[in-house]
Target: Branched-chain amino acid ABC transporter permease
Amino acid sequence: MDVLVERLVAGSTEGAVYALIALSLVVVFRGTGTINFAQGEMALFTTFVAWSVIARDLPVWVALLVATASGFVLGALVERFLVRPVRKRNDMAVLIVLLGLFTVFNSLDGLIWGGETKVLASLLPNGPDDYVALGPARIYGDTAAVWIGTVLVLIALTVLFRCTRTGLHMRAVANDGEAAALAGVRVGRVLSLSWGLAGAIGSAAGVLVTPLAPAQLSLLTMLAIFLSAAAAALLGGLDSLVGAVVAGLSIGVLEALVIGYVPGVGSNLSETTVLVIIVLVLLVRPQGLFGTKKLERV
Model:
């Protein structure tokens, strides 16, 4: 039983990491109808920015604020000057641009900060004695920071989309940009805001989750995390905030249980096992577990 509790805690922590990044993907999709395949590398870039701030002997919370602000500006600029011009052509052009950005940001990281692995401090105290016992499991500061961040982001986004005019405009633009423009919505501003918010969330997530990453801060830190987060967003439903969190937690727990209890699979095949399950679910329910099924009139 003790081993099971430890696996569940570890898996839910990893799942919270996936959920946090998945939420940034949901924001872009709900605001623009686009999946940002460069989200992980944009988050990694601003996480390196946060590391540079900490290297100047400034507090981690200052680095978090700088990274979040940088992520917002970066996301808005990418949408305005790269995505929006090519979106007028077709969706495939947007996909190519985003895949190109994936490699560009990763190359910039190596060019500016080098390929050496760096250590990023946790936002909360993370010493040997800084933990809360949950049965046999221990929750340290870096773990608590991810959980708290995920809950706060989920609450804030829920309020944004359900209780504000801005959230309503974002949903309207994603559904039909031309109709939203005719209704008086400033589509360009909404698009930039959506990408900016997603960039800010991804940047904050990068700072929070990097202390938990096995390789700490390196050029490969966000790759596996982004793939699992994208899977969580697809499984939960690209337009569902709750779905992203539930799917992220489910994937994290499932990976932990597969590693611990399925002989012969191990950590090398745990992600493959999870992805196979996700594909099977999406074959039955393409919109995801919590996504909205679109109806087309003919």
Observations:
- The radius of gyration is 19 Å.
